[in-house]
Amino acid sequence: MRQLVYEILEKQKKALSLYEIEQQFDNVERSTIFRTLKTFQDNYLIHSIDDGTGAVKYALCDDDCTCKPDDLHIHFLCNKCGQTHCMKDMPVPKMDLAEGFSFENANFVVKGICPNCR
Amino acid sequence: MRQLVYEILEKQKKALSLYEIEQQFDNVERSTIFRTLKTFQDNYLIHSIDDGTGAVKYALCDDDCTCKPDDLHIHFLCNKCGQTHCMKDMPVPKMDLAEGFSFENANFVVKGICPNCR
DNA sequence: TAAAACTTTGCAATACTGTTGCACGTACTC
DNA sequence: GAGTACGTGCAACAGTATTGCAAAGTTTTA
């Protein structure tokens, strides 16, 4: 199961939701995939993205990814097809926060139209 | 009803979820507030923020806000108290997207600890 | 002013995603 | 072969968002 889920994520260049992964199988329970993804996440194999569509999406981490603030990159959500792309070469810019605010994490989702949908 | 909801949002400096607004009333239906907020949103009085907590939050727009890409600002979610602050003086940085991607909108949520929680 | 038209509200029900409890089955260990 | 650990599927539940419908309230119109 873990191998299969991993392969599905590997094949895709985009981030997939639990539901989308489920669709790739004939007869596998949501909960099974859910727990597989959770295992992956606990072991830093994947990262999850909340792109605001209501469904969390998952994508493989790079080999050297530690899922720490330094590794954060931007995600792109296409308003037309709903696909979420990892912009792994675009780090989330560091912001100078107002006095008293400390930085721990960030979520930067850019929305627009992807090349396939123009 | 609209006046009351507006006043609640006006009083708060942070963004409120549907549930939090509901708490401010004694006996008002979620759906009523929901539709009120929707009306506000349709008329560009408020903007909604999905900070990844699972509940969408709402905050008043500035007078001159058009809710267009130029008006986008950063939001800060405190990992301790869960409150979401509008950083209205911090615009979302413009990113040079890869070839073929067009920009329409963005959601930039910074997470950390707010001054009250340190 | 009374009827008609429209708006707002509350209740109930539903959708969707995520999450957990439990039982069964398989595989591994001794 | 008994015992243990793990993975899977089913069913149920949680939380938020959303909609249909009817009753109540408000405005318009003749």
Automatic annotation (TrEMBL), chains A, B:
Gene3D superfamilies named in the record: 3.30.1490.190, Winged helix-like DNA-binding domain superfamily/Winged helix DNA-binding domain
Q: Which UniProt keywords apply?
A: DNA-binding, Metal-binding, Repressor, Transcription, Transcription regulation, Zinc
Among InterPro entries, the record links this protein to: FUR (IPR002481), Fur_C (IPR043135), WH-like_DNA-bd_sf (IPR036388), WH_DNA-bd_sf (IPR036390)
**Signal sequence, renumbered to the chain:** none
Q: What Pfam families does the annotation carry?
A: FUR
The entry's family comment says: Belongs to the Fur family.
User: Organism source for this protein?
Assistant: Mangrovibacterium marinum
Protein's name in the database:
Fur family ferric uptake transcriptional regulator
> Which annotated residues bind Zn(2+)?
78, 81, 114, 117
One function term, GO molecular function aspect: zinc ion binding
